[in-house]
Amino acid sequence: MCLLVLAWKARDDLPLVVAANRDEWRERPAEPARWWPDRKQILAGRDLQAGGTWMGVTASGRFAAVTNFRDPSDKRSTARSRGELVTDFLAGTESAARFLSNLSARDHEYNGFNLIVGDGLSLLYYGSREGHVRALDRGVYGLSNHLLDEPWPKVNLARREMQAALEEADPAPRLFDMLSNAAPAPDVQLPHTGVGIEWERRLSAALITGEDYGTRASTVLALSLEGKTVFEERTRDARGAVTNTARHEFALRVPVKS
Fold it and tell me: How far is CA 105 from each of CA 101, 113, 132, rounded to the nearest angstrom?
């Protein structure tokens, strides 16, 4: 996951709205979002190389998503897959706060990451570069491959578009439009993360295209106050075109608390 914007209790009837793009090497195998046959409570896409996921939800209202922290000087091939962090939380029963407090002692086992987890009562953020848990208040938050709300151009755009989408009866169409924006940011606005100017330009777009690396899936998740959940994932090809849509609607067993 490389772009994530979420609204937590920012609208009374929709306690949680999430829009996200998963960017990954195209050679890495994955399957579209579905209910996992071996862990039936989890609805998520699946990384078939390491077995975990980048974002998912459960029938009881647990939610988790992870992004990488971009730092090419600190990348270990021996590190554990960050996708297991999402899977472990979704498959578990610990509160969000307990899960993250236990994680802090072993975050060094992974390359840099940002993790957001929610248990229906609270939504929390943990960045391995910060090393402490942050409880999120009501509002709109954006995350890419740096710290939460780091003002990268596509993070700022995503937050603005989420605010605007919340004014519409169904925020999903506007959010998918935002996730489909392939325009790069101006050079003067680019961050400097050590990957070189060409990659900085390419990675600055919400939707990244290319035969080698790019946006593999766009997802919008909305949880209503009554417990109705809509999870829609659109798989994309190298040109950014949608090649498959997986849409799941279900009622939470335990609705998110207002």
Answer: 8, 14, 11
